[in-house]
Amino acid sequence: MELFFRILKFGVTGLLGMAIDFGVTWLCKEKIKINKYVANALGFIFAVTNNYLINRVWTFQSTNIHWGTEFSKFTVVSIIGLALNTGIIYLFHQRKNGTNFYVAKFFAIAIVFVWNFIANLMFTFR
Length: 126
Known about the structure:
This protein has one domain (2-124). Helix content is 83%, strand content 0%. The protein is built from four helices and no strands. The protein has helices at residues 2-31, 36-59, 67-93, 101-124.
């Protein structure tokens, strides 16, 4: 049951992160006119920072005094997630008559969610 609530908390945190990710991506891509892949990376970076802080305190209730090392591990997991995220968007969006960029981004977020939870559970916050 504890694992279920941890996944639920991770998901709620992820939804907030997704809102931040989409918001920053949209702002950078549509309003500031930054390259869509750079905008995607910026959205992801803002979301990762937010997600680390919430997951550390709420989801995993970490008491690790070496938070810098812990944040570094979280960042490594997130960078791998970013690579997966960007690769999935590229595969879905760049095909001839490809999927809408934001639909592809939604699918990428869903797939990367599974990676991030398992990696953080087993590596970052174990």
